[in-house]
Amino acid sequence: MYSSVVRLQNTFGYFTTVVFAVAAVIAFSDLFSPRTPSVGVLKATNVQVVRGRPHYYSSKKEEYAIIKFSLDADLSSLFTWNTKQLFVYVTAEWPSAGGSSGSGQNATNQAVIWDSIITAPSSDHLANLGPVAMKKLRRSAEGKSIDPSRGKLTLKNQRPKYQITHPSGKLAEQDDVVLRLHYNVQPWVGLLTWNQDVDLWNWKTLRNNLSKKFTLPAIKKKKATEEKKAGK
Amino acid sequence: MLSSLQNPRQAAAQLMNFGLILSTAFMMWKGLSVITDSPSPIVVVLSGSMEPAFQRGDLLLLWNRNLISETNVGEVVVYNVRGKDIPIVHRIVRKFGVGPEAKLLTKGDNNAADDTELYARGQDYLNRKDIVGSVIGYMPFVGYVTIMLSEHPWLKTVMLGIMGLVVVLQRE
């Protein structure tokens, strides 16, 4: 009855039960920490459309939009003891040429122009950084297990990480383009959460995360600008 | 201890017990598959391309229904490249169009470039049907056992042997 095999089994069974119970409690605790993210500024500051190739050996020419933007947001309330990282991203959204649907959550065209991984101090060691940047990052939160100040974002005339295009290759003079800020909270254990459209008890929705509509300019031509300069 | 082998009734009961455990596990897996509408509702992360969010061996719970909204940009999805049977966990970064024909582009958070190079020849974008599910739940490290098993196949034999021995030797 009480052989060592049975004892081993019982111990292991008890261990897994406890682990899963603790994990469930931690995951559930997310619901009780209020989330009050806010956006101060989100606007496109400088927009360009250039012609380029998708990769070096391609003969196809496509139009690429380079959207510089300014962002001021406070996402510090998203950092709790169960936050492993915060993934913040800005998308550009525009309706299709047919122009039936506006820029709702299901905008017809949506592309990430900039994103950022903000690790919590407890997951700094996992970040993909060089030794110098890693040292700096770890020193920035020495002795802290949660560092909400990392959620405060201030970007001025930020260059986009990604130049975006469209499968048709056409993007110049596109009307009704908007920028939208999103976030994704990655927990240590539990459910992944994104910014939600409605208030859910303790979790407030991310308001003001949409920029004003703007129009992409015509393709920037080198010759044209040179002529202008010469004319002046 | 081997007395159970001399008693065929007990041996048969133990075999049934073992079968019951296996079939329960199988039913739970398939049941979860029906609930989430995904052929494999739980996957193990095999690469570091989504670090620091997901490490090798982490367990992900998938959801493949579009109850509230379509699969959108920013969601982390598991997809299969056409013609290959390797599930990849990456984030959707571009979406053009709506419905099942929408063109989706993915990228790993930890990768510098998007996944165009990973897709099949002539495939520039994913469609909704290539996606096995969106990641909704996360449990670290638990799936590392399966990575160990696939990287060291002899462990499988050892484990099966131990399990069999335990079942045979166990009384009751």
From TrEMBL, chain A:
Domain of life: Eukaryota
Membrane topology: Single-pass type II membrane protein
InterPro entries cross-referenced by the UniProt entry: SPC3
Main location class: endoplasmic reticulum
GO biological processes: protein targeting to ER; signal peptide processing
Keywords, ordered alphabetically: Endoplasmic reticulum, Membrane, Signal-anchor, Transmembrane, Transmembrane helix
UniProt xrefs under Pfam families: SPC22 (PF04573)
Residue stretches spanning the membrane: 12-33
Gene Ontology cellular component terms for the protein in this record: signal peptidase complex
Cellular compartments annotated: Endoplasmic reticulum membrane
Function: Essential component of the signal peptidase complex (SPC) which catalyzes the cleavage of N-terminal signal sequences from nascent proteins as they are translocated into the lumen of the endoplasmic reticulum. Essential for the SPC catalytic activity, possibly by stabilizing and positioning the active center of the complex close to the lumenal surface. Essential for viability.
Family to which the UniProt record says this protein belongs: Belongs to the SPCS3 family.
Protein name (record): Signal peptidase subunit 3
TrEMBL record, chain B:
Membrane topology: Single-pass type II membrane protein
Chain ranges passing through the membrane: 131-147
InterPro entries with a match to the protein in the record: LexA/Signal_pep-like_sf, Pept_S26A_signal_pept_1_Ser-AS, Peptidase_S26, Peptidase_S26B
NCBIfam families to which the protein is assigned, alphabetical: sigpep_I_arch
Catalytic reactions of this protein: Cleavage of hydrophobic, N-terminal signal or leader sequences from secreted and periplasmic proteins
A GO BP entry: signal peptide processing
Domain of life, source organism: Eukaryota
Alphabetical UniProt keywords: Endoplasmic reticulum, Hydrolase, Membrane, Protease, Signal-anchor, Transmembrane, Transmembrane helix
Function of the molecule: Catalytic component of the signal peptidase complex (SPC) which catalyzes the cleavage of N-terminal signal sequences from nascent proteins as they are translocated into the lumen of the endoplasmic reticulum. Specifically cleaves N-terminal signal peptides that contain a hydrophobic alpha-helix (h-region) shorter than 18-20 amino acids.
Chain coiled-coil ranges: none
Gene Ontology CC: signal peptidase complex
GO molecular function list: serine-type endopeptidase activity; signal peptidase activity
Family per similarity comment: Belongs to the peptidase S26B family.
Assembly mode: Component of the signal peptidase complex (SPC) composed of a catalytic subunit SEC11 and three accessory subunits SPC1, SPC2 and SPC3. The complex induces a local thinning of the ER membrane which is used to measure the length of the signal peptide (SP) h-region of protein substrates. This ensures the selectivity of the complex towards h-regions shorter than 18-20 amino acids. SPC associates with the translocon complex.
EC number(s) on file: 3.4.21.89
Subcellular location: Endoplasmic reticulum membrane
UniProt-recorded name of the protein: Signal peptidase complex catalytic subunit SEC11
